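Quick one: structure tokens for this chain, please?
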Amino acid sequence: MNCSSGAPPSPNPSPPAPAARPSPIIADHRRSFPDRHPLAPILGDLTELRLSAHCRVIGSGFDFSRFITARRLFFGEGTITLNDDSGDCVLRIDPAHAHALWVLPVQVDGECRTTVRVYDTLGSLNLEFSVPGGQFVAPWQRYCAEACS
């Protein structure tokens, strides 16, 4: 897992340097223990504190965003899943593909937001979510640092 903390030098930083595609052993390990991924405690905070997050999913040929409010965090079948009040899935992440994370403060229309950017093994941004305020930057960076140590 590559983790990055601290404010980037520009508002649109380059993604973390891509690493070689992880071996099947690493991918299997990440899927076997999704609760150990640094996204797990970050998403746990979203559910426990009932934070509404602006979530953006990016892929080849699409870019989709919406606000999500997760009420339950579930680890199963090698994934990290967020469900809403009705039990519907609002976000499912394969930890084998969530290779690098950046947690940083981002200014949007004069408002500071704690932003998490998730990159795949090729260095492509696949997921970005943010919550109002900058108070989660330091604790969420610590989650990453702990996972990388």
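Residues 1-20 have pLDDT under 50 and may be disordered.
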